[in-house]
């Protein structure tokens, strides 16, 4: 059984929810962690699910122990964030997606789902490309903000794919943002593109992102252990977008 357990009251009006589950390049997690930190967002809820490890997360210079999957709110910006410090395994993915989607509907939120598209580019000047997919009326949001359509047919997998699937089944207006990312290591540069090209304009927020590149090595070191766990997990447990030709 999965449920969202609210821990604090909050008041937002038609918010945007940014989803940051771990996946390829940890692009969604890095982007969402950055939002939570930069805006000092308030911890308002946790996601409880039988398939999630029963562990406690703590942070530096803070006594508070928290569950591994949490929801944050910024009332001033009408912004919500789903932050996860563990992978969501395939056993839990369906119930997890149902529970989170029900909460998103109750909050009258527009979800932004984030995925990495594994690519290897040796050109150091290459800027990772961002494209979008949509559920409900989400295509109009992508068109309005100049986010490109996918370059080829593909599939969004892992728990993020389950969330997009649930949004589609419920005819929920949502947006999936996909960015080219390193398939092996945490990729702060790709996360910066997600923020600059997708999250900022769609959520109508202004967040500093240059430090994601300036502190890239430090961020990689901080996230490397989680990235290694993601590599060891099955593909079903890693949020990512892949071309359909891989399944032919």
UniProtKB/TrEMBL annotation:
Leader sequence segment: none
Region Disordered, residue ranges: 221-248
Gene3D superfamilies in alphabetical order: PAC-like subunit
Superkingdom of the source species: Archaea
PANTHER family in alphabetical order: 3-ISOPROPYLMALATE DEHYDRATASE (PTHR35610:SF8), 3-ISOPROPYLMALATE DEHYDRATASE-RELATED (PTHR35610)
Protein name per the record: 3-isopropylmalate dehydratase
Species whose genome carries this gene: Halarchaeum grantii
